[in-house]
Design goal:
- There is one protein chain.
- This protein folds into 3 domains: about 160 residues, no CATH class; about 110 residues; about 35 residues.
- Helix content is about 75%, strand content about 0%.
- It contains 13 helices and no strands.
- Helix 1 packs antiparallel against helix 7 and helix 1 packs antiparallel against helix 9.
- The longest helix is centred in the N-terminal third of the chain and has 53 residues.
- It starts with 14 loop residues before the first helix and ends with a helix.
Length: about 375
Protein backbone atom coordinates (compact mmCIF):
# COMPACT_ATOMS: atom_id res chain seq x y z
CA UNK A 1 0.00 0.00 0.00
CA UNK A 2 1.57 3.29 -1.05
CA UNK A 3 0.04 5.50 1.67
CA UNK A 4 -0.36 3.34 4.77
CA UNK A 5 -1.83 6.19 6.79
CA UNK A 6 -4.87 6.33 4.46
CA UNK A 7 -7.40 3.58 5.14
CA UNK A 8 -10.08 2.59 2.58
CA UNK A 9 -13.56 3.92 3.33
CA UNK A 10 -17.03 2.86 2.11
CA UNK A 11 -15.78 -0.05 0.00
CA UNK A 12 -18.15 -2.89 -0.89
CA UNK A 13 -17.08 -6.06 0.98
CA UNK A 14 -16.65 -8.85 -1.63
CA UNK A 15 -19.15 -11.24 -0.07
CA UNK A 16 -18.55 -14.24 -2.35
CA UNK A 17 -14.76 -14.10 -2.02
CA UNK A 18 -15.05 -13.69 1.75
CA UNK A 19 -17.06 -16.90 1.80
CA UNK A 20 -14.63 -18.72 -0.50
CA UNK A 21 -11.64 -17.67 1.60
CA UNK A 22 -13.10 -18.52 5.01
CA UNK A 23 -14.67 -21.85 3.98
CA UNK A 24 -11.42 -22.99 2.36
CA UNK A 25 -9.45 -21.88 5.42
CA UNK A 26 -11.77 -23.82 7.74
CA UNK A 27 -11.61 -26.99 5.62
CA UNK A 28 -7.83 -26.81 5.10
CA UNK A 29 -7.38 -26.53 8.87
CA UNK A 30 -9.47 -29.67 9.36
CA UNK A 31 -7.65 -31.62 6.63
CA UNK A 32 -4.24 -30.64 8.04
CA UNK A 33 -5.30 -31.81 11.50
CA UNK A 34 -6.59 -35.11 10.10
CA UNK A 35 -3.37 -35.63 8.18
CA UNK A 36 -1.30 -34.95 11.31
CA UNK A 37 -3.35 -36.70 14.00
CA UNK A 38 -5.70 -39.25 12.46
CA UNK A 39 -4.17 -40.48 9.20
CA UNK A 40 -2.29 -43.79 9.27
CA UNK A 41 1.16 -42.72 8.09
CA UNK A 42 4.04 -45.05 7.13
CA UNK A 43 7.25 -44.83 9.17
CA UNK A 44 9.22 -43.34 6.27
CA UNK A 45 6.74 -40.49 5.88
CA UNK A 46 6.75 -39.81 9.64
CA UNK A 47 10.53 -39.45 9.54
CA UNK A 48 10.27 -37.16 6.49
CA UNK A 49 7.73 -34.96 8.31
CA UNK A 50 10.00 -34.73 11.36
CA UNK A 51 12.87 -33.61 9.13
CA UNK A 52 10.58 -31.07 7.47
CA UNK A 53 9.59 -29.57 10.84
CA UNK A 54 13.26 -29.34 11.82
CA UNK A 55 14.11 -27.70 8.48
CA UNK A 56 11.29 -25.17 8.91
CA UNK A 57 12.57 -24.23 12.38
CA UNK A 58 16.12 -23.80 11.03
CA UNK A 59 14.82 -21.62 8.20
CA UNK A 60 12.78 -19.43 10.56
CA UNK A 61 15.78 -19.01 12.88
CA UNK A 62 18.06 -18.13 9.96
CA UNK A 63 15.50 -15.65 8.63
CA UNK A 64 15.12 -13.97 12.05
CA UNK A 65 18.91 -13.82 12.55
CA UNK A 66 19.41 -12.26 9.10
CA UNK A 67 16.65 -9.70 9.70
CA UNK A 68 18.04 -8.66 13.12
CA UNK A 69 21.59 -8.41 11.80
CA UNK A 70 20.55 -6.31 8.83
CA UNK A 71 18.89 -3.78 11.14
CA UNK A 72 22.02 -3.25 13.27
CA UNK A 73 24.80 -3.89 10.76
CA UNK A 74 23.39 -1.59 8.08
CA UNK A 75 23.22 1.27 10.60
CA UNK A 76 26.80 0.60 11.72
CA UNK A 77 28.04 0.45 8.11
CA UNK A 78 26.29 3.74 7.35
CA UNK A 79 27.95 5.37 10.38
CA UNK A 80 31.38 4.00 9.45
CA UNK A 81 31.00 5.20 5.85
CA UNK A 82 30.20 8.66 7.19
CA UNK A 83 33.33 8.59 9.34
CA UNK A 84 35.42 7.39 6.38
CA UNK A 85 34.13 10.29 4.30
CA UNK A 86 35.13 12.74 7.05
CA UNK A 87 38.59 11.14 7.39
CA UNK A 88 39.21 11.33 3.64
CA UNK A 89 38.27 15.01 3.74
CA UNK A 90 40.79 15.48 6.58
CA UNK A 91 43.53 13.86 4.46
CA UNK A 92 42.99 16.48 1.78
CA UNK A 93 43.86 19.27 4.18
CA UNK A 94 47.15 20.99 3.36
CA UNK A 95 48.11 21.70 6.97
CA UNK A 96 47.87 18.05 8.12
CA UNK A 97 51.05 16.71 9.72
CA UNK A 98 52.66 13.39 8.89
CA UNK A 99 51.78 11.92 12.31
CA UNK A 100 48.12 12.93 11.96
CA UNK A 101 48.12 11.58 8.42
CA UNK A 102 49.49 8.24 9.64
CA UNK A 103 46.82 8.01 12.38
CA UNK A 104 44.04 8.89 9.92
CA UNK A 105 45.25 6.23 7.48
CA UNK A 106 45.36 3.64 10.26
CA UNK A 107 41.79 4.58 11.25
CA UNK A 108 40.66 4.38 7.61
CA UNK A 109 42.20 0.94 7.23
CA UNK A 110 40.52 -0.25 10.44
CA UNK A 111 37.09 1.07 9.41
CA UNK A 112 37.34 -0.43 5.92
CA UNK A 113 38.35 -3.79 7.42
CA UNK A 114 35.40 -3.69 9.84
CA UNK A 115 32.99 -2.85 7.01
CA UNK A 116 34.35 -5.71 4.91
CA UNK A 117 33.92 -8.13 7.83
CA UNK A 118 30.36 -6.96 8.47
CA UNK A 119 29.45 -7.27 4.79
CA UNK A 120 30.96 -10.75 4.76
CA UNK A 121 28.91 -11.60 7.86
CA UNK A 122 25.71 -10.48 6.09
CA UNK A 123 26.68 -12.53 3.05
CA UNK A 124 27.24 -15.57 5.27
CA UNK A 125 23.81 -15.15 6.85
CA UNK A 126 22.21 -14.75 3.41
CA UNK A 127 23.93 -17.91 2.14
CA UNK A 128 22.88 -19.77 5.28
CA UNK A 129 19.25 -18.70 4.74
CA UNK A 130 19.44 -19.88 1.14
CA UNK A 131 20.74 -23.29 2.29
CA UNK A 132 17.94 -23.67 4.83
CA UNK A 133 15.34 -22.70 2.20
CA UNK A 134 16.77 -25.29 -0.19
CA UNK A 135 16.62 -27.87 2.61
CA UNK A 136 12.96 -27.00 3.29
CA UNK A 137 12.11 -27.34 -0.42
CA UNK A 138 13.85 -30.71 -0.57
CA UNK A 139 12.03 -32.00 2.54
CA UNK A 140 8.67 -30.71 1.25
CA UNK A 141 9.19 -32.43 -2.07
CA UNK A 142 10.01 -35.70 -0.34
CA UNK A 143 6.90 -35.49 1.87
CA UNK A 144 4.71 -34.67 -1.14
CA UNK A 145 6.12 -37.64 -3.09
CA UNK A 146 5.43 -39.96 -0.15
CA UNK A 147 1.88 -38.57 0.15
CA UNK A 148 1.31 -39.23 -3.55
CA UNK A 149 2.47 -42.83 -3.08
CA UNK A 150 0.07 -43.21 -0.13
CA UNK A 151 -2.80 -41.39 -1.85
CA UNK A 152 -4.94 -44.42 -2.76
CA UNK A 153 -8.58 -44.66 -1.57
CA UNK A 154 -7.98 -48.00 0.15
CA UNK A 155 -5.01 -46.70 2.14
CA UNK A 156 -5.55 -42.96 2.57
CA UNK A 157 -8.15 -41.30 4.78
CA UNK A 158 -7.72 -37.97 2.96
CA UNK A 159 -8.54 -39.65 -0.35
CA UNK A 160 -11.66 -41.16 1.22
CA UNK A 161 -12.70 -37.70 2.42
CA UNK A 162 -12.36 -36.38 -1.15
CA UNK A 163 -14.62 -39.22 -2.33
CA UNK A 164 -17.12 -38.31 0.41
CA UNK A 165 -17.25 -34.72 -0.84
CA UNK A 166 -17.79 -35.89 -4.42
CA UNK A 167 -21.10 -37.41 -3.27
CA UNK A 168 -22.27 -33.85 -2.67
CA UNK A 169 -20.72 -32.58 -5.96
CA UNK A 170 -17.94 -30.83 -4.05
CA UNK A 171 -14.44 -30.86 -5.52
CA UNK A 172 -11.37 -28.68 -5.75
CA UNK A 173 -11.04 -26.78 -9.01
CA UNK A 174 -7.71 -26.46 -10.83
CA UNK A 175 -8.66 -23.07 -12.27
CA UNK A 176 -9.25 -21.88 -8.69
CA UNK A 177 -5.75 -22.73 -7.49
CA UNK A 178 -6.82 -26.11 -6.10
CA UNK A 179 -9.42 -24.56 -3.77
CA UNK A 180 -13.20 -24.96 -3.63
CA UNK A 181 -15.03 -22.45 -5.82
CA UNK A 182 -18.06 -20.48 -4.66
CA UNK A 183 -20.64 -23.13 -5.58
CA UNK A 184 -18.69 -25.91 -3.83
CA UNK A 185 -18.22 -23.75 -0.73
CA UNK A 186 -21.98 -23.23 -0.48
CA UNK A 187 -22.64 -26.93 -0.99
CA UNK A 188 -20.13 -27.73 1.75
CA UNK A 189 -21.60 -25.44 4.41
CA UNK A 190 -25.16 -26.11 3.20
CA UNK A 191 -24.77 -29.84 3.92
CA UNK A 192 -22.83 -29.35 7.15
CA UNK A 193 -24.72 -31.83 9.34
CA UNK A 194 -24.72 -34.71 6.84
CA UNK A 195 -21.09 -34.26 5.78
CA UNK A 196 -19.70 -34.05 9.31
CA UNK A 197 -21.76 -37.00 10.52
CA UNK A 198 -20.36 -39.16 7.71
CA UNK A 199 -16.90 -37.73 8.33
CA UNK A 200 -17.05 -38.65 12.01
CA UNK A 201 -17.98 -42.25 11.16
CA UNK A 202 -15.28 -42.48 8.50
CA UNK A 203 -12.55 -41.18 10.81
CA UNK A 204 -13.57 -43.46 13.69
CA UNK A 205 -13.39 -46.60 11.55
CA UNK A 206 -10.17 -45.67 9.76
CA UNK A 207 -7.78 -43.94 12.13
CA UNK A 208 -4.35 -44.32 13.63
CA UNK A 209 -4.33 -46.24 16.94
CA UNK A 210 -2.59 -43.32 18.70
CA UNK A 211 -5.59 -41.04 18.05
CA UNK A 212 -8.42 -41.24 20.60
CA UNK A 213 -12.09 -41.14 19.60
CA UNK A 214 -12.57 -38.29 22.09
CA UNK A 215 -10.16 -36.05 20.15
CA UNK A 216 -11.95 -36.81 16.89
CA UNK A 217 -15.35 -35.97 18.39
CA UNK A 218 -14.04 -32.69 19.83
CA UNK A 219 -12.47 -31.56 16.56
CA UNK A 220 -15.47 -32.56 14.46
CA UNK A 221 -17.84 -30.77 16.84
CA UNK A 222 -15.81 -27.54 16.60
CA UNK A 223 -15.48 -27.63 12.82
CA UNK A 224 -19.15 -28.56 12.33
CA UNK A 225 -20.18 -25.56 14.41
CA UNK A 226 -17.82 -23.28 12.43
CA UNK A 227 -19.24 -24.61 9.16
CA UNK A 228 -22.81 -24.11 10.35
CA UNK A 229 -22.03 -20.55 11.46
CA UNK A 230 -20.45 -19.81 8.08
CA UNK A 231 -23.64 -21.02 6.42
CA UNK A 232 -25.82 -18.90 8.72
CA UNK A 233 -23.73 -15.73 8.41
CA UNK A 234 -23.46 -15.74 4.62
CA UNK A 235 -27.07 -16.84 4.13
CA UNK A 236 -28.29 -13.80 6.10
CA UNK A 237 -25.84 -11.43 4.40
CA UNK A 238 -26.85 -12.65 0.92
CA UNK A 239 -30.44 -11.41 1.38
CA UNK A 240 -31.19 -8.60 -1.05
CA UNK A 241 -32.70 -5.41 0.42
CA UNK A 242 -32.85 -6.76 4.03
CA UNK A 243 -35.30 -5.38 6.59
CA UNK A 244 -34.48 -4.59 10.20
CA UNK A 245 -35.06 -8.11 11.49
CA UNK A 246 -32.92 -9.67 8.75
CA UNK A 247 -30.11 -7.21 9.46
CA UNK A 248 -30.25 -8.10 13.17
CA UNK A 249 -30.00 -11.82 12.35
CA UNK A 250 -27.00 -11.15 10.10
CA UNK A 251 -25.27 -9.16 12.87
CA UNK A 252 -25.90 -11.90 15.40
CA UNK A 253 -24.65 -14.66 13.07
CA UNK A 254 -21.47 -12.77 12.10
CA UNK A 255 -20.65 -11.91 15.73
CA UNK A 256 -21.18 -15.55 16.75
CA UNK A 257 -19.03 -16.77 13.84
CA UNK A 258 -16.03 -14.55 14.55
CA UNK A 259 -16.20 -15.06 18.31
CA UNK A 260 -16.10 -18.84 17.88
CA UNK A 261 -13.56 -18.51 15.03
CA UNK A 262 -11.12 -16.90 17.47
CA UNK A 263 -11.98 -19.34 20.25
CA UNK A 264 -11.15 -22.34 18.04
CA UNK A 265 -7.82 -20.72 17.16
CA UNK A 266 -8.25 -20.08 13.44
CA UNK A 267 -6.15 -17.24 12.03
CA UNK A 268 -7.97 -13.95 11.53
CA UNK A 269 -6.92 -13.28 7.95
CA UNK A 270 -7.71 -10.13 5.97
CA UNK A 271 -10.97 -11.71 4.75
CA UNK A 272 -11.98 -12.65 8.29
CA UNK A 273 -11.18 -9.10 9.44
CA UNK A 274 -13.35 -7.59 6.67
CA UNK A 275 -16.13 -9.98 7.64
CA UNK A 276 -15.84 -8.98 11.30
CA UNK A 277 -15.41 -5.20 11.00
CA UNK A 278 -16.86 -4.10 7.66
CA UNK A 279 -19.50 -6.51 6.29
CA UNK A 280 -22.23 -5.85 8.86
CA UNK A 281 -21.84 -2.03 9.01
CA UNK A 282 -22.12 -1.89 5.21
CA UNK A 283 -25.10 -4.28 5.27
CA UNK A 284 -26.84 -2.18 7.94
CA UNK A 285 -26.50 0.99 5.84
CA UNK A 286 -27.04 -0.10 2.26
CA UNK A 287 -27.54 -3.89 2.13
CA UNK A 288 -24.90 -6.15 0.66
CA UNK A 289 -26.78 -9.12 -0.81
CA UNK A 290 -27.59 -7.39 -4.10
CA UNK A 291 -23.97 -6.25 -4.54
CA UNK A 292 -22.09 -9.55 -4.34
CA UNK A 293 -19.76 -10.51 -7.18
CA UNK A 294 -20.98 -13.89 -8.50
CA UNK A 295 -20.77 -12.58 -12.06
CA UNK A 296 -16.97 -12.36 -11.64
CA UNK A 297 -16.68 -16.00 -10.60
CA UNK A 298 -18.98 -16.97 -13.46
CA UNK A 299 -16.33 -15.59 -15.80
CA UNK A 300 -14.18 -18.62 -14.96
CA UNK A 301 -16.82 -21.02 -16.29
CA UNK A 302 -17.45 -18.88 -19.39
CA UNK A 303 -13.74 -18.81 -20.17
CA UNK A 304 -13.38 -22.58 -19.70
CA UNK A 305 -16.39 -23.19 -21.97
CA UNK A 306 -14.87 -21.00 -24.70
CA UNK A 307 -11.51 -22.74 -24.38
CA UNK A 308 -13.12 -26.15 -24.80
CA UNK A 309 -15.22 -25.00 -27.75
CA UNK A 310 -12.21 -23.66 -29.67
CA UNK A 311 -9.53 -26.03 -28.38
CA UNK A 312 -8.71 -27.02 -31.96
CA UNK A 313 -7.78 -23.47 -32.98
CA UNK A 314 -4.08 -22.92 -32.30
CA UNK A 315 -3.92 -19.41 -33.77
CA UNK A 316 -4.53 -16.93 -30.96
CA UNK A 317 -6.05 -14.20 -33.15
CA UNK A 318 -8.50 -16.59 -34.87
CA UNK A 319 -9.44 -18.14 -31.51
CA UNK A 320 -10.12 -14.73 -29.97
CA UNK A 321 -12.13 -13.57 -33.00
CA UNK A 322 -14.27 -16.73 -32.95
CA UNK A 323 -14.90 -16.38 -29.21
CA UNK A 324 -16.01 -12.74 -29.55
CA UNK A 325 -18.23 -13.61 -32.51
CA UNK A 326 -19.99 -16.37 -30.53
CA UNK A 327 -20.52 -14.09 -27.52
CA UNK A 328 -21.92 -11.33 -29.76
CA UNK A 329 -24.35 -13.77 -31.38
CA UNK A 330 -25.48 -15.08 -27.97
CA UNK A 331 -26.25 -11.55 -26.78
CA UNK A 332 -28.26 -10.58 -29.88
CA UNK A 333 -31.79 -9.40 -28.91
CA UNK A 334 -33.53 -11.95 -31.19
CA UNK A 335 -31.47 -14.82 -29.75
CA UNK A 336 -32.16 -13.68 -26.20
CA UNK A 337 -35.91 -13.44 -26.94
CA UNK A 338 -35.92 -16.93 -28.45
CA UNK A 339 -34.11 -18.35 -25.39
CA UNK A 340 -36.59 -16.74 -23.02
CA UNK A 341 -39.53 -18.11 -25.06
CA UNK A 342 -38.12 -21.65 -24.92
CA UNK A 343 -37.53 -21.34 -21.19
CA UNK A 344 -41.09 -20.11 -20.63
CA UNK A 345 -42.67 -23.01 -22.54
CA UNK A 346 -40.39 -25.59 -20.88
CA UNK A 347 -41.41 -24.62 -17.34
CA UNK A 348 -43.24 -27.25 -15.35
CA UNK A 349 -46.93 -26.79 -14.66
CA UNK A 350 -48.02 -25.53 -11.27
CA UNK A 351 -50.16 -27.49 -8.86
CA UNK A 352 -53.55 -26.44 -7.52
CA UNK A 353 -52.00 -24.04 -4.99
CA UNK A 354 -50.30 -22.12 -7.78
CA UNK A 355 -46.86 -23.42 -6.83
CA UNK A 356 -44.76 -25.99 -8.62
CA UNK A 357 -43.88 -29.20 -6.75
CA UNK A 358 -40.21 -28.27 -6.96
CA UNK A 359 -40.96 -24.83 -5.52
CA UNK A 360 -42.85 -26.33 -2.58
CA UNK A 361 -39.95 -28.67 -1.87
CA UNK A 362 -37.44 -25.80 -2.05
CA UNK A 363 -39.48 -23.76 0.43
CA UNK A 364 -39.63 -26.73 2.81
CA UNK A 365 -35.85 -27.26 2.60
CA UNK A 366 -35.28 -23.52 3.06
CA UNK A 367 -37.38 -23.51 6.23
CA UNK A 368 -35.45 -26.51 7.62
CA UNK A 369 -32.15 -24.84 6.87
CA UNK A 370 -33.30 -21.66 8.58
CA UNK A 371 -34.04 -23.63 11.76
CA UNK A 372 -30.66 -25.40 11.50
CA UNK A 373 -28.81 -22.08 11.09
CA UNK A 374 -30.50 -20.61 14.16
CA UNK A 375 -29.52 -23.77 16.04
CA UNK A 376 -25.83 -23.34 15.20
CA UNK A 377 -25.87 -19.66 16.21
CA UNK A 378 -27.54 -20.44 19.52
CA UNK A 379 -25.16 -23.36 20.20
CA UNK A 380 -22.12 -21.13 19.66
CA UNK A 381 -23.49 -18.67 22.24
CA UNK A 382 -23.46 -21.47 24.84
CA UNK A 383 -19.82 -22.41 24.19
Amino acid sequence: MQYQCLTPQNFVPPLLHLEIGMVNQMWDNLVEWIDEEVEIIPLEEKEARTKLKSALEERDNAKAEKKDSEKTVEIEIREKNGEIKALKAALRRKDISSDEKQQVNMRLTLLQTLISEQKEHLKTLKDNLKLTEDKVSECKKKVENLQVQRGKPESSLIADIELLLEKYSIQREAYHGGDFNGVCCRRLVGNTQNIFNELRTLMSTKKDDRCEDRLIDEKIEKMELISGLLDAAFAHLNISYPNGEEKAKANKAVCALLAYWRKVGLNVTLKAHIMEKHACPFNNKWGIGDKEESFIEQGHQVGIKDNRRYAGLTNFEKKTASTLKTRAAASHPLVVTCKNTVMEFSKRKKNADGKGIKKVKEEHVKAEKGVQRDHYVNESMKK
